[in-house]
Amino acid sequence: MNKITVLAFGLLAAASLTAKSQTMNNPNLNTSLAPVEQLALTQEWDKVFPKSDKVDHKKVTFVNRYGITLAADMYTPKGAKGKLPAVAVSGPFGAVKEQSSGLYAQQLAERGFLTIAFDPSFTGESGGMPRRVASPDINVEDFSAAVDFLSVQPNVDSERIGILGVCGWGGIAIEAAINDPRIKATVASTMYDMTRVTANGYFDADNSAEKRNANRAALAAQRTEDYRSGSYQRAGGVVDPLPDDAPQFVKDYYAYYKTPRGFHPRSGNSTDGWNTTSALPFMNFKFFEYADELQNAVLIVHGDKAHSYYFGKDTFEKLRGDNKQMLTVKDATHCDLYDNLEKIPFDEIAAFYIQYLK
User: Fold this and answer.
1) Which residue from 23, 215, 253, 356 has the highest number of Cβ atoms inside 10 Å of its Cβ?
2) What digits encode the pLDDT tens for the residues 145-179?
3) Is residue 112, in this structure, part of any structural domain at all?
4) Do residues 51 and 102 lie in contact, with contact meaning Cβ atoms separated by under 8 Å?
5) DSSP element (H, E) containing 195
6) Does residue 28 fall inside a structural domain?
7) CA separation (Å) from 2 to 11, 13, 15, 230?
8) Contact at 8 Å (CB) between 148 and 73?
9) What angle, rounded to 10 degrees, do the helices at 168-179 and 309-318 form?
10) Integer Cα distance of 221 and 280 in angstroms
């Protein structure tokens, strides 16, 4: 070692000993164990889909790497014994576990998997302040935290854990899998790349430095206003009332989030949306930069009538390996894959997990 390297190691060792000494003298400085926040969890069934008599259900909580306590619904096949393969589910972007992700979790539990559908940080029944913050980093972490939790459950095989993301959480799921090799199989259903759509607009129509800089300026100004007022402006959920000239995919969102079919009072998409400034980091953060390095299995499921289909196809082209699959559902729109049991290919999704969670 040269003198600089030796000095560096010496400084690190001294810092470590100092930190250890401070921790021993003051246990409150030991931040390696984040406390579990006592969340107010609704115990009655308040999902937008009927409860299955083939699975057991309970509420659970776990803590992510940022110390945020996440709330989840756990679904277990009735009568299951031994260690099960497990899948963590979240999405769509701005939704809650009582909506589409819970339906996916329950359907997979009927097919033999232990599953959890969780609310992301700052949303739904999960903890985190301020409310309704989206973060490309923290939301990717939420999936890995779900894997942390599942890995130590006595009835879960820690070598057989997968994840599933719906809509914007489909892209987040793939990004999580790139970073976390414990995730053996990933399904992205009707996926968005939230970094791409935020930076470039739909169909990349606003892909210019001029437009991004204008958006950055507006969002930065909103930060000032938020700080001055002491509250965060909300971006608004799905548009309501629905304009007559709204694009068909906006009408499809309305038909899910704003009607009894999918409305839920804790859902940002059903109500007043994310904090406006949540868009800022997504413009400066690119998913899938290392997609070609993802070794574990991925299945992208998309409807050929979905406005978002291009996200799935373009992301699939970035993946490498014979364990990557693209399943196109004929005549299915984006929101068909939220809850349409005649369109969502649950048996094919389950077969994919069976193949790769072994």
Assistant:
1) 253
2) 999 999 999 999 999 999 999 999 999 999 999 99
3) yes
4) no
5) helix 194-200
6) no
7) 14, 17, 20, 52
8) no
9) 10
10) 12
